[in-house]
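Example with several molecule types.
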Amino acid sequence: MGEISVKKDISEMSLAFVGAGKMAQAMAKGFLAAGVVKADHITATAPSCRSQDTLEGIGCQFTHNNKEAVANSDIIFLSVKPHVLPGVLQEIAPVVTKRHLMVSVAAGVPLQFLEEKLPPKSRVIRVMPNTPCVVRQGASVYVPGSHVEKEDSEIIKSLLSSLGYCSESNEGMISAVTGLAGSGPAYAFTAIDALADGGVKMGLPRELSIKLAAQTLLGASKMVLETGKHPMQLKDDVCSPGGTTIYAIHKLESGGFRNLLIDAVEGACLRADAIAKKAK
Ligand SMILES: NC(=O)C1=CN([C@@H]2O[C@H](COP(=O)(O)OP(=O)(O)OC[C@H]3O[C@@H](n4cnc5c(N)ncnc54)[C@H](O)[C@@H]3O)[C@@H](O)[C@H]2O)C=CC1
Ligand SMILES: O=C(O)[C@@H]1CCC=N1
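Resulting structure tokens for the full complex:
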């Protein structure tokens, strides 16, 4: 019953994205693809007109007026860059009321900072999404702030679940989530491009090479999620004794493949922590 009534409510709610860039567009398109929000219930704001055509093209409203967009909406996604957020919070704070559920997707900006810049008792949720939510294969985590009610969390969980995997977490984990899942699509895109380069080097046409690389990562990911088997067991199943794969794995290990990926997640996580320190 809870889920049905929450979904019914959401379809009547109005959403504003303050900041109309890549993350906002990915989420807006994902929500529309999922059918959880009506296009004309979404407004996005930005100082320039760069994303106006794209957003209006999918039926959303676009404006340069942050305060007006906030004042006229129920759920506000703060989707500007972290360094822009303090100024935006100062600008919109006078129009934020009990009506509003404020949702920040900004990497590294702590809940305490957000709550301090908004009126007392503002309902604030911190989310770390990723861009694959545009195809409803996102991976996101949300952390409720001090004044968030159970129904607020349910609404956000329902919205984010429509974009892919989502779970509630605590703020101590969010930098690590950022390093792994928020930034992670960029590692995967780089891996796909590099694998495709390998195919091209060995004579495959570029288009086929990219398709094979992307589908191979997609298939491997689905096997991990759907079989429940450990990734290393699945890896062993591909490595025939004395076969081709174990020669490739040896190359990857010699080049520090795992260390590099661990370093990548750590690097992004530490950067998120550094942004958080600056916000204090
Ligand atoms: N791109 C990604 O994969 C992810 C981004 N995020 C977070 O999402 C937020 C936005 O990132 P992106 O979309 O990548 O950046 P972006 O640069 O594509 O978008 C930022 C948007 O904010 C607008 N903007 C700038 N100043 C503004 C102001 N004063 N008022 C209203 N809008 C303003 C820009 O015109 C632009 O539309 C960041 O805080 C980032 O940490 C979180 C997870 C993943
Ligand atoms: O690179 C960034 O800072 C943002 C946050 C996570 C993914 N993109």
